[in-house]
Amino acid sequence: MRAAQGPPRPAWYDGGVPELPEVETVASGLDARLRGAVVESVRLLRRDIVKTGPRSFGSVLVGKRVRRVRRHGKRIIWDLDPPGAELNVHLGMTGNLLLVAADAPLADHTHLRMRFAGRPYELRFRDPRRFGGMWITNGGRAARRGRFSRPLGPDALTIRLAQFRELLQRRRRIKALLMDQQSIAGMGNIYCDESLFRARIHPLTPAADLEPARVAALMRSMRTVLRRAIAAGGSSLRDYRDAVGDPGWFRLEHRVYDREGEPCPRCATPIERIVAASRSTHFCPRCQPAP
To answer: Which of 46, 106, 209, 245 allows an S-S link to 111, with CB 3.0 to 4.6 Å?
Structure first.
């Protein structure tokens, strides 16, 4: 299996991925290839990627069978047998979990190698900027709390309308609220911009000002965008690749994200960029009028 290198960093790059669709693509790819596999060895090349005690990290995992690899928000969770421990992974901004041949050349910034009994490949965790990490939990509880082990809100892909309406009864600006992982898990810069455009909502609109019909429209738009992005394998901007090194192609369907100055696909008005929730934010000033 190969691990492709991304293109040079564009000037506009601000770490937009991986978000929910990219993490879902990685998790489902790992689940299809590792379900039932037994961890044979764990080799840490950088100890600081482990957030809950690197000394016991390998010993907890070795001998465990992978029962399932799943996702919640931007977090990848490995359910293991015998039960009692879960492996959690956050890819950060530049992290990759790649399945490669065990004898493949080692890429720069590879921080972990994991092998499985009877399997010809190994799993490698690569993260040039080291904003990601791994940690062990027991029933969802981490051995040491921190930003990686904070509780997550309901998942953006499965949240119910009643929950979503309750969540939006706040005066926070809608983009900032959608980006808050403890409120709703999985949304990031790209998919917030794309969802708000499809729902015709300005990113600075106070969430509590949205009428029920607009809230429902936003949830529909959010689910549509996320599902279409998952079907396309996510959006590869620079570092993101799936579990076997392939890029995602949803960036070809971006309607506003990273399209400053280009015509809106709906009305031809030039797309504008502002800063919202401390992030570059793209929108159409005609289709998404200011509040």
So the answer is: 46
Domain that holds residue 54: 20-149
74 shares a domain with 171: no
Query: For the whole model, what pTM was predicted?
Result: 0.86
Catalytic-role residue among 124, 126, 255, 279: 279
Residue in 33, 74, 115, 124 annotated catalytic: 74
Distance CA 104, CA 94 (A): 21
Q: What residue type is 196 in one-letter code?
A: L
Last residue of a domain, one of 105, 126, 149: 149
Neighbours of 258 (CB within 10 A): 21
Q: How far apart are CA 206 and CA 231, in angstroms?
A: 31
The predicted-structure confidence for 32-42, as pLDDT tens digits, reads as follows: 999 999 999 99
- % of the chain beyond a pLDDT of 70: 85
Task: Find the CATH number of the domain harbouring 118.
Answer: 3.20.190.10
Task: Provide the 3-class DSSP secondary structure of residue 100.
Answer: strand
51 is catalytic: no
Who's near 6: CB < 8 A, 6+ residues apart? 236, 237, 238, 239, 240, 241, 247
| Residue 114 banded pLDDT, cuts 50, 70, 90 | very high
| 82 is annotated as an active-site residue | no
